[in-house]
Design goal:
Radius of gyration: 16 Å
Strand order of the largest sheet: 1-2-5-6
Order of helices and strands: HEEEEEEEEEEEEE
Number of helices: 1
Number of strands: 13
Shape: globular
Structural class: mainly beta
Largest sheet: 4 strands, antiparallel
Distance between the termini: 40 Å
Length: about 170
């Protein structure tokens, strides 16, 4: 931002690292790292979450976590946010639509640091979200389409990532 000219632009080509790193829908930051979540890449729906070290904006600063390797339905991400300790990523725009929310421990950005909460097991209408945000205590999933446009704003207690923490 201090050099807002073409000379101040740096490009990190994620596809040069892995050809599947394309088709991102959004992202967020925890201050040190930037996180991108994918929707649909060159081969189909994607489950990749990419962490970029903002102090090492090179291929060496990139870590990839493929959520689809944990659960094949964790693809087509259309929302995500962080509370500083965890990243939350969820889908809603890819068929079949589901209500799965992946919580990723930012201190353990591996498959072992992932927990999954399936909101559709609480209520079959709790699926198909696009976007989300948090207020420090709760995470909110913005309703979109669960087979039809819906208005189910779901709130998850970030300290109780379980069915009991969902309203």
């Amino acid at each position: 931002l201090q050099n807002f000219t073409t000379g101040g632009v740096t490009v990190l080509n994620l596809q040069a690292i892995d050809s599947a790193l394309a088709g991102f829908y959004g992202g967020f930051t925890d201050g040190r790292y930037g996180y991108l979540y994918s929707f649909y890449n060159t081969t189909g729906p994607s489950g990749r979450v990419v962490r970029i070290d903002l102090h090492n904006f090179t291929a060496g600063g990139v870590t990839v976590l493929n959520l689809a390797s944990i659960d094949a339905e964790l693809v087509g991400h259309t929302g995500g946010f962080t509370d500083g300790k965890y990243a939350y990523v969820f889908g809603g725009g890819y068929s079949p639509v589901n209500g799965k929310v992946a919580r990723i421990d930012l201190a353990n950005f591996t498959a072992g640091g992932v927990s999954v909460l399936d909101l559709a097991t609480i209520n079959p209408a709790f699926k198909g979200f696009v976007g989300g945000f948090q207020d420090g205590r709760y995470g909110y999933l913005v309703p979109y389409n669960n087979g039809t446009a819906h208005g189910n704003l779901v709130r998850i207690d970030l300290g109780n990532f379980s069915a009991a923490g969902v309203t």
